[in-house]
Design goal:
The complex is a heterodimer of chains A (164) and B (105). By secondary structure, chain A is an alpha+beta fold. Chain A is built from three helices and seven strands, in the order βααββββββα. The chains are: A alpha+beta (164), B mainly alpha (105).
Chain lengths: 164, 105
């Protein structure tokens, strides 16, 4: 497995609190889904081997379509890390082929996701989300397989991104 | 072959990504690139050809030597693509911050 995409943020809360964002349905519902989307369903089965079902519903102006995802937990280390496999699903939590849901044929399946929590002291926590996929399969996801050095090169070439 | 020119196919190979990382630092001749790898010169030359075909690499004649360098425009197209994913998570992080703040109240 190769590293694909990693994003970090330091939160102004201790690990035990940041952890709850991933385990409590009413908290998951408040952050899952892009702008203006809502998350009507967050059925959490938070344990190794468990499968959570989350949905995001598009606003009416975007057709109001509801998309379900499942998170199948493969490893949970309390207040340290969570690993799960993400897939598109139907409303019953059954894994679906992306194409049958109107997604492009190279939409990634079996996205391994790792969330890690690092205690920073003074009640702060760094959370890192990393998404992985098999490089062998040429999926849309493989498109992001750039080594970090290359990423650095990109930022040099697009300085307007740095001024944000 | 059409697939050969697919930029994403091109970067799916670890050796080709390593080549891109090398020339990102400085323009290099095919010989200088090949020196950095255990693979045969012929193999590396094939990789360079694929990267050139999909315009990730550009070449410049300098005296008798050909130098390969990174094509920033093409790289940026890929970076923009990856940026969408980053922005998606940055957006979620923003919501998470709000949720954590509301827990404190």
């Amino acid at each position: 497995m190769e590293k694909k995409l990693s994003v970090s943020r330091i939160f102004n809360a201790p690990p035990e609190e940041v952890w709850r964002l991933w385990t409590e349905p009413e908290l998951v519902r408040q952050w899952w889904g892009p702008d203006k989307f809502i998350c009507p369903v967050a059925k959490m089965d938070f344990r190794e081997g468990g499968v959570s079902l989350v949905s995001m519903k598009a606003p009416p102006e975007f057709g109001g379509k509801e998309t379900y995802s499942i998170w199948h937990y493969t490893e949970i280390v309390p207040f340290h890390s969570i690993e799960f496999i993400m897939n598109l699903a139907d409303q019953n939590g059954i894994k679906q082929d992306p194409v049958s849901l109107g997604m492009p044929s190279d939409f990634p399946t079996d996205i391994k996701t790792r969330v890690s929590f690092r205690e920073m002291g003074e009640g702060k926590t760094e959370m890192t989300v990393t998404e992985y996929a098999d490089f062998g399969q040429i999926t849309a996801f493989a498109k992001m397989g750039l080594e970090q050095s290359l990423g650095k090169a990109c930022s040099i070439f697009s300085p307007e991104k740095n001024t944000k | 072959m059409e697939t050969r020119r697919d930029v994403f196919q091109a970067i799916a190979d670890p050796t080709r990504r390593a080549i891109l990382a090398l020339v990102a630092a400085q323009a290099l001749t095919p010989g200088a690139i090949a020196e950095k790898f255990d693979s045969s010169r012929q193999t590396i030359s094939k990789h360079i050809q694929i990267l050139s075909e999909c315009q990730l690499l550009s070449q410049k004649q300098h005296g008798r030597e050909i130098y390969y360098y990174l094509n920033p425009r093409k790289i940026k197209a890929i970076a923009d693509w990856a940026e969408q994913f980053r922005e998606l998570w940055e957006g979620r992080f923003n919501y998470m911050e709000k949720v954590l703040n509301s827990l404190k109240k």
